[in-house]
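Q: How do we represent a protein-ligand complex in a form that can be generated token by token?
A: Start from the inputs.
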Amino acid sequence: MRALIVEDEPLLHDELEDQLLEEQFNVDVSETLQEARNLVAADEYDLVLLDLGLPDGDGLDLLQMVKRFYSDTAIVILTARGEVEDKVKGLELGSDDYLAKPFSMSELRARIHAVLRRRFKINDNEISAGALTVNLDHLQVRYEQQPLDMTETEYKILRYLVLNKNKTITRIALAEHIWGSSIDDRFSLDFINSHMKNIRKKLSGAGASDIIETVYGVGYKLEAHEAE
Ligand code: CA
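Then emit the structure tokens for the protein with calcium ion bound:
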């Protein structure tokens, strides 16, 4: 999952970054509204931690932009402003939660977990796409309750595809998720291809062929037809 931290206090954003890295996010940090706008225009994030008081403007402007572009992105507002109006306005504009500074890191983690659980419908730290189930904390994958043996990289790729089911994921986004954004593109894209070949072989061995669609020239999409 990809997260964007928009916060102009360096000590706080460093601490937030450490927390999110521990939670397996790929993290970008911006100290200004303008830089955050550029990042959001270029990339879809799963989670945005958003300070409202930014040196060049109001974080609520970014909130509106994120919601217009990507309705699925979870947004948690961080602010020193205690005013009720800001909280109400943020929630009206579509933020998922609100933390008033100062807050503890354990409080932040609890809120992030709750937001992501709601967004991705996660139960017992497991998320499903059709008959495929991935444990978010441990390297465990099952298809129709049958355990599948995946390497760590294969597991990370599958977890990302399941968390983004029914969405086309570019190979670059996948590579960045696995290896971070300082990657050698051509090299790692070849790696993604060969990992995907192995994942498909293991899935079809369990009777799950064709659940990962190749979107020609772009990337992959994990198709999940839910039973309910
Ligand atoms: Ca601030």
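The pocket of calcium ion is lined by residues 8-9, 51, 53-54 (CB under 6 Å). Residues 185-205 form the longest helix (21 residues).
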